[in-house]
Specification:
The chain is of the alpha/beta class and 203 residues long. It has a domain at 82-202: Rossmann fold (3-Layer(aba) Sandwich), CATH 3.40.50. Helices cover 42% and strands 15% of the residues. It has helices at residues 2-18, 23-31, 40-49, 64-67, 102-114, 129-139, 161-170, 187-198, and strands at residues 53-56, 75-80, 90-93, 119-123, 143-147, 172-175, 201-202. Strands 1-2-6-5-4-3-7 form a seven-stranded mixed beta sheet. Strand 3, helix 5 and strand 4 form a beta-alpha-beta unit. Helix 5 (102-114) packs parallel to helix 6. The radius of gyration is 17 Å and the shape is elongated. The N and C termini lie far apart (43 Å).
Amino acid sequence: MAQVCSNSRKLLIYLAVKYQGDFGKVLTALQLKEDIETPYEVVEEVCNSLKCKTMTFLDYDYPEKLKKIYRPPLVLFYYGDITLLGDQQKTIAVVGSRQASDYGKEVTEKILSEMPKDCILVSGLARGIDTLAHEAALNHRVRTIAILGSGIAYCYPSENRHLYEKIKNNYLLLSEYPSLVEPKQVNFPQRNRIIVGLADVLI
């Protein structure tokens, strides 16, 4: 049974890599039983080639919060502390304009400076409010999760490399897109459903 579960898990990862995290294509491949035609050695090679870590919908610790959203990610690629996704964690999402006003900056700083240290900030590492929220979280020692709209190894926007590395090494960097998948416009609404799904409070 354990071997079957392990093989099913690896198949999900293989398909997520093959179809670049596209939920619809992965689901179609599963429905068409594409796995029957895929040599196990190929699946194993793809899984072993990943430099990041993975969590799948089949894992016992997959967040219940995400199971309730539309099209829950079948595979999550990540760097960092996956325990931050624990269902017992209090998570606050801060999202906003890519062109942050002075008022937006002030409010974001105030929210993070007053946020209880047992809470976790989740945002999207985008320009504007997302960037300010992650920076304020790091400055005030608030744990933070960044959800990417690009592949887990693709830092976007590039000017946020310093934030990407700090969150990767100290907290949690997460994406449903593998490796170097480039950011596409369609990816960001998909990314947002994960942010909202994880959040107990959305600001």
